[in-house]
Amino acid sequence: MKKRIIIIGGGAAGFFGAIRCAELEPEAEVIILEAGKDVLGKVRISGGGRCNVTHACFVPKDLSKNYPRGERELIGPFHQFCTGDTIEWFEKRGVPTRIEADGRMFPSTNKSQTIVDCLQGAARKAGIKLLLQQRVHQLEPPKEGQGHWHVHTKEASYPADAILLATGSSPAMWKVLEQLGHRIVDPVPSLFTFNIKDPRIEGLPGLSVPKAEVRVQGSKLNAVGPLLITHWGMSGPAILRLSAWGARELAERKYQFIIRVNWVNRHVEEVREELEALRQRESKKQPHANAQFGLPARLWRSLLTYAGIPEQARWAELSKKAMTKLAEELAQGSYPVNGKSTFKEEFVTAGGVDLKEVDFKTFQSKLFPGLFFAGEVLNIDAITGGFNFQAAWTGGWIAGEGLAG
User: Fold this and answer.
1) How would you write the pLDDT of the chain (405 residues) with one tens digit per residue?
2) Nearest to 95 by CA among 58, 128, 49, 51
């Protein structure tokens, strides 16, 4: 009887692991069990339908710093399969990639369907069997370490020599693993935007600043990067990065907290000195007429108004109190956050299989030989920019080698 490998989950990590295993061990029967009616759904919708395949960061230790959970554990795996390996893998299969200015990488076609077609084509070529609408509700390990695993769905029971679990952030599968004996770190949302109702940003959706610093008051959490004003509050890389690193702390606060926004990414004293220089240099001009510090004009005027500076006032007329207030608004304005908003299509969760129970040389369970993990089923997540996919490719590749071994 030939070796049978079961892959549970038809996403990026599942396909990648299945393909690697099947190519290394062509005699084995490799089966993907997918609970839904289709596969690679997250790949298809990611990056606005373009698929942010990976990020142009090629040094394992530097790459690992983009993972709030999994940073230490991923350094070794990234030495085995990193960004350059991902690019080469797709290029060898006819899918060249390109780098955008911010480091994100996409297929040259700019269409996620290209990645979907590539993965499905490679799976067919490797002889992988795909079974849809197969929701797994129980995993039965070999008795006393002997014999086969049994994967139970409502429709059937599948014996397997080894299993790769790549079901993403699936509460149902985490429950199955808990019943098996694995510890699951409670999931909380990561990568979310902040709900903020405030007169300073009201009516300004779509405006952004290229480099702002955001801090959570009463916490060590802070992030620097582009900040976007939205209809519901604030978003952009700085906010998303803060939400990723603060996922657990902000959940404990029930998403009620205050952020300090430094719109100009300069120390408040430096801003105060620059404003004083403007008062001397532009004494007869009106602050409202000329935006400073590279800020969008409408945001600049809104902050001036909030600082109590009249529209017709001239620089020379500003009091010391008004100058101090403006400097504080520019460099350390307080904004109350009341809740979060998440991207339903690209929802990322902090939580999953406890990393202490996984051998990251193989991505195999330390508790159950023959059980492997890859992707977001693990307590690993990243900031935006292609990093979550890179973790999926790396985990899938290494797990696939372990399955074939």
Assistant:
1) 799 999 999 999 999 999 999 999 999 999 999 999 999 999 999 989 999 999 999 999 999 999 999 999 999 999 999 999 999 999 999 999 999 999 999 999 999 999 999 999 999 999 999 999 999 999 999 998 788 999 999 989 999 999 999 999 999 999 999 999 999 999 999 999 999 999 999 999 999 999 999 999 999 999 999 999 999 999 999 999 999 999 999 999 999 999 999 999 999 999 999 999 999 999 999 999 999 999 999 999 999 999 999 999 999 999 999 999 999 999 999 999 999 998 655 568 999 999 999 999 999 999 999 999 999 999 999 998 999 999 999 999 999 999 998
2) 51
- Its pTM stands at 0.93
Residue 214 near residue 233, CB atoms below 8 Å = no
Asked whether the beta carbons of 87 and 105 are under 8 A apart, the reply is yes
Are 42 and 67 a contacting pair, CB within 8 Å?
A: no
Structural domains of the chain in order of their starting residue, each with its CATH number: 4-188+346-404 (3.50.50.60), 192-342 (no CATH)
Instruction: Give me 117's structure tokens.
Output: 């077609």
Q: Helical H runs in 257-348?
A: 268-281, 297-306, 320-332
Number of C-beta neighbours around residue 335 at 10 A? 19
* The pair of three-digit structure tokens given for residue 359, joined into one six-digit string: 């051998």
- Cβ atoms of 4 and 28 within 8 Å: the answer is yes
Q: Which two tokens stand for residue 259?
A: 């952020």
Task: Give the number of other CB atoms < 10 A from CB of residue 40.
Answer: 23
d(CA 331, CA 309): 17
DSSP assignments along 81-149, one per residue: S-HHHHHHHHHHTT--EEE-TTSEEEETT--HHHHHHHHHHHHHHTT-EEE-S--EEEEEPPBTTBS-E
**The token pair that represents 397 in the structure block:** 């590749």
How far apart CA 41 and CA 394 sit, in angstroms, is 19
77, two tokens: 């795996």
User: Residue 194 in contact with residue 259, Cβ under 8 Å?
Assistant: yes
Measured CA to CA, the distance from residue 91 to residue 389 in angstroms comes to 16
